[in-house]
Write a structure and sequence with these properties.
Distance between the termini: 70 Å
Largest sheet: none
CATH architecture: Up-down Bundle
CATH superfamily: Ferritin, core subunit, four-helix bundle
Mean pLDDT: 85
Shape: globular
Number of helices: 7
Strand content: under 5%
Radius of gyration: 19 Å
Number of domains: 1
Order of helices and strands: HHHHHHH
CATH class: Mainly Alpha
Helix content: over 70%
Number of strands: 0
Length: 190
């Protein structure tokens, strides 16, 4: 009987792994979380779809901010751009650590890498230099922070887990501040 359960468990994992071939890390995490919610024999409770999706999306966005900002610190020659990029690295690394702790506590699978879309942004940014680089980085930061503020505002009303909502409420003001700062920085680059 014990061998049968082990076989079924390993077979399920193998099927999930096969289904995830060719998917990016974010899609794999979403898929794993859907499967975990379906698993009626799970020993630990799994949060609702809104909570899982928010944590996955917040992780993807946060990792992308750090990755793009590391490139900016390395490649930009503009002191204000580098200062902003360093702020992004510090703030988003801290937020990412908080998300990872929440996800571990809530049994949510997170992506191990940025989405293919965010990887493409990094690849495209690496092809730029000088003022073109700075403008592209800042444009990406404006768009990504607008998306992040939108994600967090939606989640603040859609997520029911009180610990996750508390995290959202603590981070949202920082994201709004980042957005205003990067918009001001963009005006100086014209």
């Amino acid at each position: 009987m014990k061998k049968t359960f082990l076989f079924i468990g390993f077979s399920s994992l193998a099927m999930i792994a096969c289904n995830n071939a060719g998917k990016d890390s974010v899609e794999q995490a979403d898929s794993a979380n859907r499967e975990a919610r379906k698993d009626t024999m799970a020993t630990a409770p799994v949060p609702d779809a809104n909570t899982s999706a928010f944590l996955v999306d917040a992780t993807n966005g946060g990792m992308a901010e750090v990755q793009l900002s590391r490139i900016a610190v390395e490649r930009s020659t503009n002191a204000a751009v580098k200062d902003f990029a360093n702020l992004m690295i510090n703030d988003h690394t801290s937020a990412n650590d908080q998300v990872m702790a929440l996800a571990a506590k809530k049994n949510v699978t997170l992506p191990s890498d940025v989405s293919d879309e965010n990887r493409k942004k990094s690849d495209d940014l690496m092809k730029k230099s000088g003022k073109d680089f700075d403008k592209e980085y800042v444009d990406i930061m404006v768009k990504d922070h607008e998306a992040a503020v939108n994600l967090f505002e939606r989640a603040s009303t859609n997520v029911s887990d009180t610990e996750v909502v508390s995290f959202i409420n603590s981070i949202l003001p920082k994201l709004k501040n980042h957005l205003e700062s990067v918009k001001a920085l963009k005006k100086t680059l014209k």
